[in-house]
Predict the 3D structure of the following.
Amino acid sequence: MKKSILIIIFIFKAVTAIGQECPRLTSPADGSLGVLVNTTINWPPVPGIIGYLVSLGTTPGGGDILNRRSAGLTNSYTPEVGLPENTTIYVTISLFLSNGQLIICTSESFTTEDVTTAPPCTSLTEPLNNDGNVSVKTELNWGYAPTATGYRISVGTMPGATDLIDNLDVGNVLSYNPSDDLPQDTPVYVTVIPYNENGDAGLCNEESFTTGNAVIDCNAFFDPVSGEIISRKPETNLPGQIGLCKNELPTLYSSIDSAEGFRWYKVNDDGTETLLSSTATVSLSEVGPYRYEAYNFVEQGGETFECAVSQEFNVVLSEIAQITSVSVERQIDGKRIQVEVSGLGDYEYALDEIDGPYQDMPIFNRVSEGTHIIYVRDKNGCGIAQRLVERELTVDDFPKFFTPNGDGINDFWQYIAPRERNEIQLTYIQVFDRYGNFLTQIMPNSKGWDGTFNGQPLPSSSYWFRAKDNLNNEVQGFFALKR
């Protein structure tokens, strides 16, 4: 029974996985002969998938011509540089499912034509013929010439000239990136000659374009000498907001960026900019938007260029915080301290350590007993305010027992003053017997209770007390009298 269930589950999963049927080639059809080398491969659309992969090879399932090229959801594929002639081509279509599965379909094949003529000419696709202001770093691109198996290019600065590139065989590709920059502000003449085993296209039209002024590449580059990645642009650490301390206007602000030049601008209400400084330091006296530039100099082609990084920032008024209140709430896992502040600044908070760590929230949880200090720091550098959070009164401030037997040791029961700063000030201490009858009230600065009532010694027993401090905190607890 269990085996039958497992078999049924396996069959169900297998059927689910192949719910999409593999397509058959519509053109060229499986087994076709004499197929053009520049053919477009087509198959019917398959519903419920998220994409196709196309592989082309000279063996079933192979990918030596094209290995799993994505066709998206387009149910056709045209090889960019054509197919080899007189060759059996195996096409493998794979289906991407939405659940991440990949169905690899059975290969189908066709055989290409035997090419017996030279290819036709082609033309530039980028830059286009007669284009102007072309980058000196441009890549040359041209269209596929049907039946071509390679291309030779010539480039010159005059019609028919090859002073830049002389009949260079670039292989079966449709682009070429010259190793050197093209001359700036100059007409450039390009001839592309397709060829195959039967010959070349012969005299093809020469095309031309005109370069613009040199454009410096300010991106990082690999230095083969040092083996390091070198950035032509400076890196900036300037924050997006700078605070001016209310009582320190104007304020001198200095960039810590490593750069060869600096510029600071005030952005005006109409969008124009006013240059404030051309050094690493600027004097700031107004709130509002600003722009900062840091740049390095780069030599290229006998000219000097700037590679700059730009950063917009806002200037705001700021000031040291005013701590208006600190509230303390006793919880099961410790005290909860909340700070209230006022001021223009952007503030952060730390407990007990002036150097932090600081946090954005003005609340501290699970705080231990004892005296603590709250620090409030202005993020814009205008100062740190602090407030002492006094230790609260607890039952642990009172003895658990005393022995009034006249031996001079532990003869009185009294509040134990804490050793922390700003000692707690008590307003009263009241003592009661175990039945709640009031016995006495003692002053915090006295010796304490001697264990008598109306001059008569009380018996050994449990007693309880109630005490209140100057912060209106009240505690109560038990202690023992032993004789």
